[in-house]
Amino acid sequence: MTQPGEHAERPPPGGASFATTHWSVVLAAADPTSPHAMQALERLCRAYWYPLYAYVRRRGYGPEEAEDLTQEFFLRILQSHGLSTARPEKGRFRSFLLGALKHFLSDARDRAGAKKRGGGRVIISWEQDLAEERFGREPLDEESPDRLFERRWALTILEQAAARLRSEYAAAGQAQAFEILKAHVTADTPGSSYSESAASLGLTETAVKSAIHRLRRRYRELVREEVAHTVADSEQLEEEIRHLMAVFSKSGAAFLPRPPNAG
Fold first, then answer.
1. What are the E-state strand segments in the chain?
2. Which domain holds residue 240?
3. What does pTM read for this prediction?
């Protein structure tokens, strides 16, 4: 009998090697209009739009103005030679993006003309109501825009990994197993919880524990892959993971929380 997670895992080939990533493709492009680089950059921007939107909102802009500014920023980055400021020594996509956004917001002409020049054009699609719902759940303390950006960036990494994990299990016909086992991803739960999961899946408790072990391991692999997409090399990968762990440590949260619902 196939156990949950046995065929859902997709370990990256050549485990020790560092594969070409989205951000390394961007940095390697000599021409800022390179279609491959632009596609890689657009994919990254689509994945990480919310930390930018939340940053703009925390800077005091209202929902509509924040959306206009964020869309105009994406327009600049994706279609107006925004890659010209990307340099290998700048390393992480996170650092490049936040620095570029700060420069953009500091320009009074950009701020005043964003809505007019953007013309309501949508560069990165999202639902405004959903964006505001997410922003409304942010901590009510006086968290700085920079700290909010860092925390939301780290959470987005985890959300991306969780969505991929869910998709892998669904593709293997194990969507129900994922829904049952996902609550066990990051922390040991009481024995009764394992028993309940085992009963729901028609497995032994030992088999469920093995399935949870596979789920946790694959989740961590996917988190590493998601982080790798945003850095240029393996050395930066380890540094970025340590940085994200520190971000969560300061906020009192675990680095690998339970996968959020991604559907």
1. none
2. 22-251
3. 0.79
